[in-house]
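FIELD: query
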Amino acid sequence: MSATRLERLAVRLLPWAVFAAGLGLYIATLAPTVVTIFDDSPEFQLVCYRLGVAHPTGYPLYTLLGWLFTRLPIGDVAYRVNLLSAVCAAGALAGLFVLVRELTGRPLAGLLSALALAVSPVFWSQATIAEVYALHLCITVWLLAALTRWEETGAERWLIIAAGLLGAGLAHHRTIVFLLPGLALALALPAREGEPRRPRWRCSWWKMALACALPLLFYAYIPLVGARAGSLDGTYRNTWEGFWRHVLALDYSAFLTGNPLAQSRTAGDYLRLWLEQFGPLGGVVSVLGLMWSGRRPRTAWALRLTWLICLAFAALYRVADVEVFLLPAFLAGAAGIGLAFDWLAHRVGAVPASGALRSTVRVLLALVLAGQALWAGVQAYPQADRSDDWEVHDWAVQALSAPLPPDAVVIGILGEMTVLRYYQETQGLRPDIRTIAADQEPARWEAIEGALGETGEAYLTRGMAGLAERYHLDAAGPLIRVRPKPAPAENLTCAGVELLPGLCLQKWGVALRRLPGGWHAGISLEWLALRVLDRDVRLSLRLLAGDGSTVAQHDRRPVHEAYPTTAWAAGETVSDWHDLRVPPAAPPGTYEAIIILYDPASGQEWARWSLGRVELPAGGV
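FIELD: result
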């Protein structure tokens, strides 16, 4: 094979190599299942599985792709939807490599840009969970790459491909419109002097319009399934007005016109966020590099204008997770690092020196920029690695494994209910349990009263102010059981041990349970208030090794902080439960569980008691 053919083969294989390397990194750090509650990730994992309607703007393209990934015979459903993000993120890296290589003519510049984006904390975080942003950036960068090919060849097929990708972006995430001014500018700029071929686009307008419009048909998915599935929060209305309100996300305009979440950020906050992505040197170099047009000035201007618009939008859009809306800007910044390397390489090439010396200087420049990116990646890795994150899974499994009666009613915020519904539907865990999502406390009170009137009890995922004064509370696994207050009793005797005057620990038990996240020591307690208690008691549950050292600890008031001892009436029997996760590094052997009662204000210990011993088997987790 000739050297020329080898070079062509390398050119074709390099994007695939970038894709494979990125995919390997993201699969190695991929979340194994549901790992979040307070964002949209569990919603997408459930919506893709059941083919429902996601929150505005509906994300029909993502939902259908996610459904296809749920058919894969690997991991659980949530893992498969997480995998979609990893694949899209790797595709975005390959697209960025192609884009920067076309802008500069240097494959090394493309590699530096791809590396910088690959390990930037925000992008990495979106590559390992079920979210829409990896697909959004994949579409964005390949659209810009198609623009560079049009700029080089003038072939209308590249404009049609770019228009099709724009339509796909509009069928996915509306912030693709950030590209429109830059695309318009790229098409309007005059041809450069000496260009071998003036790119033509005016004769292709109808083909471009058709290519852009066809992907918008994905939005027909929403009314087609809306009547059957609806949205998880129940807000979607399958009417003409409801469809447009959902697709245009009109309710989200409040984050532009107002500040409902009371978010406050300074220019310094945005600067710190930028520098966190690429490191101090990379952060500065990325901005300087964006000023360099390389070989494709039209695409460079489109990239530059997109960057500025994205920054302006993020400054005006007052949401808690503004960093994900800066991802197109981070993409441009990563491209800027490759452009900066190209500019520096040009300057080095103009220096009167030997070719070997100039090559050495270029290699050193590349190593410095790559080293900065790798340093930023090392800093980001502990938080980016979600491969052993089982906390949400273990909570949900223990909640659905608690001794709840048939058709019990569980009430909590939407994210928590979505997680429980996910495990009910995908793994068949307690499908009889009814879940009620109530984000606002008035709605939660209403749901509690309704459940009490229907079944005599309700189960909550979290405590509420005033709950302990109105109701009797018990722990049912990680849930809080709510029932009417019992009548006071007198002349009580303690059948267990009276740890404090008037506070009797009647029964206790410790049980080890192995979940995918590791071993858990579940500690069950049964308290009896012999009289009204005037002490606010805080509990410390600990697991001690043979040498007396603490290997696990859990400090809370009874019933998951929801039922302080000062709220107990004389004669109340309170069931309590605590979960201690055994560290993965804990060796097999005998461990002792103890309870310590202490003053939460001063930390003064009032009493301690041994709850028994458990045997951690060999093999660990």
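FIELD: remark
DSSP finds 22 helices and 13 strands in the chain.
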